[in-house]
Fold each of these.
Amino acid sequence: MPKAKNAVDDTPTRRSVLIAGAGIGLTATACTREARPPAGAPGPGAHAARRRQAGVTTPQQATALILAYDLDPALRGTAGARELKAVLERWTRALAETRETAETQQTGDTGDTGEAQEAGGGRVARLTATLGVGPGLPDRLGLRAPDALRDLPSFPGDRLDPARCGGDVLVQLCADSADATEATAATLTRLAGDTLSPRWRQGGFLPPSPDGGGTPRDLLGFKNGSANPTAEECERWVWSGDATYLVVRRVHLRVEDFARLAVHRQEEIVGRRRATGAPLDGGSEHDDVDPLAKDAQGRYTTPPRSHVRAASPRLDDGARMLRRSYSYADGPTDQGLLFLAFMRDPALFARVQRRMAAQDDLAAFTQARGSAVAYVLPGAGPGRPLGAELLG
Ligand code: HEM
């Protein structure tokens, strides 16, 4: 049976976006399934007292920029922790100021749209900065980190470029304009001084959608994010208190080879309808796929080697990840998916990825070339800059 839609008003009020975007206040957002026009009221997953970073359950902005930094190799132990703490304090202040500036330069009342207007009329906005630490960092600084923070294993079919992997500190910047993410990136890198040096960066965008709005499409032309968890499912599977994990994969896609296939075959590979995102046996976009459902002739309605079958939460005791992916295009021969997913335990990613390598026809069109995992700390609050939980 398809799962009933769970209507969620997941767009925070403008004010909460601005504050949360700066990482200094309360986030009152729910998950991205059923993305809807702004409504203001927090969804059922919202907790007034939560200090969660923005950019996780925030509805997707048009562009993303992932920044990976390495801690100065000379820095270790308490001295290293002190330096990093100073950087994160500067970042927390700068991000708060960025948002305040956007607010005061605002030229008109945008209502509860979660967006600010820049002086001169350019839309900035909905900038979110989401910070995490990589698996190598806590040990070097003599800090306690959760056991789940460890390097991802290697997977069959990966062709990882070490220069696009890992990092001690990861920042996901998202906004409706690449100018906004670039300007913020420049500020963060400047404030990092010699303590954190840039390791790699990857920009991403949402391709124009023929249906306008709704779930974004990937470069294969399919809606990507339809089966994301509801607000309640996020409470159970994405958040661990106010923290979560981010998995980043830069996945090269053989876009042209895939495009040459008949739509019917493409849909068999993905396991959902290309036009609507609906399951192959009917229903609508946000309905769950039952990977074991059969038709009257006893054939699986969703092919056993389809992507949604390999990725099905039913094979993980219901565990879900929140995908918030973007596309990337770095020249004509290198384009793909900047896969971004949040979950309470990155072991889920490893299980799904292993199944994809073993039993997913989509894997023939994909190749991971970059990879990173980060522990996304609780958000900042009054008197508690980013990183306070880890660095004291
Ligand atoms: C490599 C490029 C990838 C592409 C183009 C892609 C595309 C898609 C599409 C079109 C869907 C169906 C619509 C939706 O629910 O979003 C989907 C579902 C899903 N994908 Fe991927 N995906 C990719 C990689 C991955 C990876 C690496 C993982 C995790 C290891 C993953 C996990 C999932 C999950 C969990 C679902 C939802 C399954 C469900 O609940 O029915 N995907 N993906």
Note: Residues 14-391 form one domain.
Amino acid sequence: MSEPSSTDKKVIPIAVAAPEAAPPESPTGAMIRTLGLVSAICGLIIVGAYQGTYDAVAANKRIATERAVFKVLPKAKSIAEFLAQPGGGILKVGAGETAIPAGSVKFFAAYDESGKLAGIAAEGVGKGYADNVRIMFGYQPDCQCVVGIGVVSMRETPGIGDKIITDKEFLANFTALDVKLKADLSALANEVKAVKRGSKTNAWQIDAIAGATITSRAVGKAINDSAQALLPRLVPKLDTLATKS
Ligand SMILES: Cc1cc2nc3c(=O)[nH]c(=O)nc-3n(C[C@H](O)[C@H](O)[C@H](O)COP(=O)(O)O)c2cc1C
């Protein structure tokens, strides 16, 4: 038998099935998953930071508010927080209470060393140039007038709007700003309003700061709106607040 010649040899190809490659992941899907994860982590951090600082922020806010009350009523030695309710009732706010029932107006009664009423303080808010201007004002029942203001918070322009806390002539508006009520005690007798610098003719007007009329107006509106809401409820009940309880 003769050997098969090299030309007779047949090469039989062996097919090796390659493993099927997974389809490439779409970049959008990966991006959405990553963004979702990052958002969830950020959300957790934000919520954690909010909850962790809530008490400290509330305490700081309270301290700032109380400081403002003592600033606008310098004779005050102690203060108590009250709510003037829609029906006309006056309710003392207990320690730690923060929720204000709808329609109530918050105010502070300030007492001197002998426990006699040294004045009332209340907050007001008006739209300024950059944002809301939140102020505290002191009210003296004897003259039915505003006797001082302090800023609780504002974001007005440094050197322009923030003159409301430094301009002596502007602050002089608040030594005896008239907020008396009509004879039937239903509303303010006159609207408290800021007017252009130098044009004040009445005791209920505020001479604005030249170049900062917008912030000055915000202060006027804050006092007007707050006094309008509070005084008709408060004035008839002032005798109940005459001495520290
Ligand atoms: C950058 C910039 C910041 C300003 N910031 C205040 C501001 O904080 N409060 C304000 O009353 N007016 C601000 N003004 C000025 C007001 O645009 C406006 O001119 C002024 O309140 C009007 O006051 P006048 O009528 O007495 O001039 C600012 C103006 C500019 C250009």
Note: The mean pLDDT is 90.
